[in-house]
Amino acid sequence: MAETSQSEEANALRVVLPAYTNRTSTHTTHSPFPEKLAPASLPWNLLTFLSIAQSLKIDFLPITWAPALMPVDHGGTSEIRQSLVNVETAFVYKRLILGNVMNKDEEERAFQALIAEVTILGQERLRTNKNLVQLEGVCWDVYRLEDKVLPVFVFEKAEMGNLVSFMKAEGKHLGFGERVELCVDVGTGIRLMHSYCEPSQSRENFCLDSDASDIASDCTRRHQAP
Amino acid sequence: MILQAIAHGDIKPHNVLIFKDGEATADGGSRGGYTAKVTDFGYSVMFRHPDSLIRMPKTPFWVAPEWRRRYSTDFAGAKKMDAYSFGLLCLWLLLYAGKCDIDKFYEELSVEEELSVEEELSLEEDKSTIARRKVDEAIGIEEEVKERLRLFFENTLVKKDREGDFGVLLRILAQHR
Question: Quick one: which of A55, A62, B106, B167 is 20 to 30 A from A44 by CA?
Answer without folding.
Answer: A62
